[in-house]
Amino acid sequence: MDDLETRELRYFVAVAEELHFARAAVRLGIAQPPLSRAIRRLEQRLGVRLFDRDRRGAALTYAGSVLLGEARAALDAVAAAAHRTRRAGDPTRRLVLVTKAGASHELLQRLLDALASDPEAPSVEVLLCEVGEQARLLRDGRADAALMHRPFDDLAGFDTEDLYVEGQIALLPAGHPLASRDRLTLADVRDVPDLPLARWPRLDGSYPEGPGPEVHTQSQLAQLVALGRTLLVIPASSRAWQWPEHVAVPVVDAPDVTTVIAWPPSSRSPEVASLVRSAAGLRRAAEPAPAD
């Protein structure tokens, strides 16, 4: 009675994300009437209304918003099972470590060097992604582990090991007056009339309010800073992709950022365990020796 099929969950998620049955049908490549019937059958089986409908489209009810989160997680789990099973059967497979392009560059290089020097270490492929994509790639099985950043990235449901804590910097156009300062505060970089803060997407994909440009990729952001259109506050290690037209200034009261290695809690892979041990070993090597 309560069994849910992946097909009807995909149908439901498409409507929930489009909030319009006709657009969802186009996205799914099916006609609208069978889609509408499938959603009505799903509501009847669950005994709840998932959408409030009118001529303009549809809106999620509270029950629908709950199912949306659960359906996404369930579809991710199904996709992950398929990805991991296929990869497990590939004799040439390598462990996939995903990280944001340009982030934690020095730490990543040290980790890869440590793995290369250990004949027992797993072979690792590095998958570079854009902001906020690591969690999805871990959940759907396309990656085995990830370098992520607390408090910015979505770590919900993952096992993690803290690796590195650092401060943040403001990345500014070289010709801007703030670029000549030795240090800045968050108050200094907020509401700069001629240089609004760039706006990254939140974990839910929405953007905060503000005059700054919406940014999607590191390369887009780098060029906007160089053109004098925006500034941003980022972890200090992310300045690895800094352009000559950029200047980095410490933001002394910005919250610290912790780089972690994350992996799915269901993983029983000895290769993942070996990768995590290698990463944790780098952290321990960098820690000061205890005082006598």
TrEMBL record:
Assigned keywords, A-Z: DNA-binding, Transcription, Transcription regulation
Transmembrane segments: none
PROSITE patterns in UniProt: HTH_LYSR (PS50931)
Superkingdom in the source lineage: Bacteria
InterPro entries the record matches: LysR_HTH_N, LysR_subst-bd, WH-like_DNA-bd_sf, WH_DNA-bd_sf
Ranges of residues in domain HTH lysR-type: 4-61
Family: Belongs to the LysR transcriptional regulatory family.
Protein's UniProt name: LysR family transcriptional regulator
